User: Fold this.
Amino acid sequence: MEGAIKTVVSVFLKFAKGKENLGGKEFQTLVEKQLNNIMTDAENSKAVTKMRQGLDENKDGKISFQEYMILVGELSKTRLNSCPGNSPYKSVNSH
Ligand SMILES: [Ca+2]
Assistant:
């Protein structure tokens, strides 16, 4: 658990390159490099742009750490739902 938190934080810092936000390009790179195993659309730049717009709560075109955490939470939920054997929850939106 501690390791996972450190990873989540260090990934953000690495791709934000010391800034407080991920720009569009940085976000795209992060998704491509880090999430291509769990996201089918990771290399589809249109899909990633759409996802970024959905996460961008204050509409400044950039992804803050807070907005990035929304993504991490959403992906964690998806992951939980995709493992019915390990999950105490029923998958509501399963395909
Ligand atoms: Ca934002």
Q: What stands out?
A: The CA atoms of residues 1 and 7 lie 10 Å apart. The chain has four helices and two strands. The pocket of calcium ion is lined by residues 56, 58, 60, 62-64, 67 (CB under 6 Å). The domain at 8-76 is CATH 1.10.238.10 (Recoverin; domain 1).
